Structures are given as C-alpha cells and as structure tokens.
Amino acid sequence: MPDPATSAQQFSEFRASPVDMDLHMGQCIRLLSYNVQAGIKTGRYRHYITHSWKHVLPHAQRFSNLDRVAHLVKGYDIVGLQELDAGSIRSGYVNLTQYLSEKSGMPFWYDQTNRRIGRFASHSTGVLSRFTPVEVVEHRLPGRIPGRGALFIRYGSKKDSLVVLILHLALSRRVRMMQFDYISEIVNEYRHVVLMGDLNCGSDSKEMDYLINRTLMREPTHEMHTFPSWRPQQNIDHILVTPTLRVDHVRALNFSLSDHLPVEMEITLPDSILLGS
Question: CA neighbours within 13 Å on the CB side: how many for 188?
Fold first, then answer.
C-alpha cells in the first residue's frame, strides 16, 4: 500500500503570489480539515446502504482505516476532524480523537460530543494539535434538532491570539444561515481566525456569502471539490481565514477513505503571533 502522506495528489490548488509572500515574516503552520466518517471506508453510493450497519456496530477494519488517517495527519500542525466517535458500541468504547492523537504522535487532542444515539454512537468533532492552546470552548449551534457544535480553540496571548473554529454544519440551508449568524459573532471578536470543517454548502452559496460579508473572512480558491470522495463534484469542505493570515497554498488531497476528501492549507502568521509547544 502506498504511503498516503506522500502519495496524496492535488485536485485543485492555490499558491500565494510573490507579492503575497512579502506580507508576513512570521511562523508557518500546516492545517488539515477532514471528515473521517468514523473510520468507515466509502467508495460507492451503494456503500451508504451496504455499510450502513458500521455506523452503529463495530467492525474490524475501522481501526486499520484510522491508522491510515493517523499516518496522514502526523504531517500537520493543527488538524480539525469531523464525524468522530467519543466512545460507544460502534467504536468499541474507544475515543477516536484520542486514538488518532496517540497513533499520530500529536501531543494535544480535544473532542466535543454533539449527538448521542443511545449506546450505539457518540458523534463528535475533534482537534489534534502540536501546540497546546490556552483556551478551548464548546459552542452549541442553533438548530431545530440539537446535535451541531463549534469547537473553539485559541492559541497565543490574549492580545495576539490565533483562533481556530472547527465546524460540522446542518444539512438545511435555513439552519446553516442561523449557524453562520452565530459563528460570525465569535469570529468578529478576534483578528486572526481560521475556520474549517464540513460546512455542507459550497463556496458560491448564499450562506457562505453571508458569512464572508459579515466577517470579511476569505477562501482563496472556490474550486476544491471534496465530495463524494470517489467522484468529487461538490465543494462542501472548507478552510477560511481572516485577511491577517497569509495563505501560502491550499488544496484537496486525493486520500479516499471516507466519503469526503481532506483539505490542507499552509499559512504564515503575523510575526506578533508565536505558537509554542
């Protein structure tokens, strides 16, 4: 089996221009956002039916799949993960964020449980990080059905903070608008923000326009199709940043394990921000 960290290929890519490269002289960090579908390998639409039992019951291949994910994420500094399990029957009562942290050697991990389905599933969002944050906050997002959250992670001093928000938004456009309204209030409290996750909407959607207009965040490229992983046609997985962060490159990786492709981004921070271990 080829090394996923070295064999990953780009579907589309943005690279900073030489002019942009002179704007910052700070620390460079690598980001990854990935909906891992609880370690379930999906390669065809029919798998949503034939593999549906894996969402509530344990299966032998889950952890070998997650080992591949762990090998991929070890090359990054901050990793936002969606569709994890915090420990239930389907995961053998193993917290999958902690498992990936230990397997990848990423020293810091944290997860937010958003929805429980009895003892069968405990849906969560997680972060893996080489840096220890100074603050982690779990936000419950608005919606008609509870179960969506935003994981807030802050690094650095209070004056010069880097804030990372990890999201997995609702399927309904109306609810996503409510959730973006909530998120924009958080974003506007800070200068340096990264927002990443499965947003369930495209770059040209009304709700994405709403977020960008309210926060002035930006997405350097709008053509990264990440879903479904075996024939990407929708760009619903995103990493956005505030204008104070220089984007050096961003791309979707050809790493087809779940039904989503991961998105990576490399950014340079202002020299006023220094992330330690």
Answer: 12
